[in-house]
User: Fold this.
Amino acid sequence: MMTPVLRNLEMTILGLGFLGLAWGKNRLHGYTTPNRVEKSDSEGKVAYLLDIFASLRRFLPPQFDLRGRDVLELSPGASRGIGVLFLALGARSYHAIDAFDLAGGEDPAFYDRLLDRFPEGRKADRERARTIARTPGAREFDYAVGRDFDILRLAEGRSFDLIVSCAAFEHYDDPAATIAGLTQVARPGCESVHIIDLQTHSRWIRERDPNNIYRYPEPIYRLFSFPGQPNRQRPADYVRSFSAKGWSDVRFVPSLTIDPALRETSLRGLAAPFAGRDDMSILDGALTARYPGLGGDWGMAS
Ligand SMILES: C[S@@+](CC[C@H](N)C(=O)[O-])C[C@H]1O[C@@H](n2cnc3c(N)ncnc32)[C@H](O)[C@@H]1O
Assistant:
């Protein structure tokens, strides 16, 4: 049997190959595949969106009422279906912002199929959701794309009561700047829920060595950098950045941790600054926060 040191050496060498593959794929095709569901797999897309939506709702405070709220989704990827579901529950509007135009050509007929599988919400709200979603250019169901991901500009004068994202924050070039941007469009009392996938993204190696991306010193990892390369921020980094911008009740709730059978090897042989951190067994989870916190100077007359 291979010793843990040899196994980690093997994973580190193989992982370099996967970093190179991800880099090469991006050079050839750009940012194209937001999740593992094929574009043509309508049923798979419905199941994926219902699953994500259920997770987002689970992390919302139980007393939070969606009725009449304005919702912002960051980086919806290939579908604005999450927005249709928010509208069906009575949200007033949904706006989505992305750096890549992955949802631009989405067929509005898909939203009907999605709603057919989501029996919740009042009849009037569900009908309104269907109507808005099939109205081209509706301000209550909008989408803005800009490679600079300038949230204030892309919000086009709106502000929001709820800001969500899924599998997006780990891709941001500068998460602290994104948090500063979303803070500028958050209304007092705004809730935020961000599902963040912290583990290695390349499939084969992710299953065997979920912390593989953390094995490389920054200069080596950045040799393979491309737009959207996982940024390797950890839960404590996100919590710090939200707190610094005046958000309160900032929490990172883990939803997946490393399988006990892989834990020892996964925590060994990591590069600085990841070695020895106490959050390295978290693979996935949600950052939740409310704006603003108590004691800040926001909203005070100047
Ligand atoms: C893994 S996809 C997730 C999409 C969708 N939320 C989902 O769950 O399928 C990552 C999302 O982040 C966006 N993204 C990737 N790199 C980005 C960057 N550097 N700045 C802003 N958005 C980025 C992509 O356009 C995409 O929408």
Residues 4-29 form the longest helix (26 residues). Residues 31, 34-35, 52, 75-77, 98-100, 102, 149, 166-168, 171-173, 227-228 surround S-adenosylmethionine (CB under 6 Å). The chain has eleven helices and seven strands. Residues 6 and 12 are 10 Å apart (CA to CA).
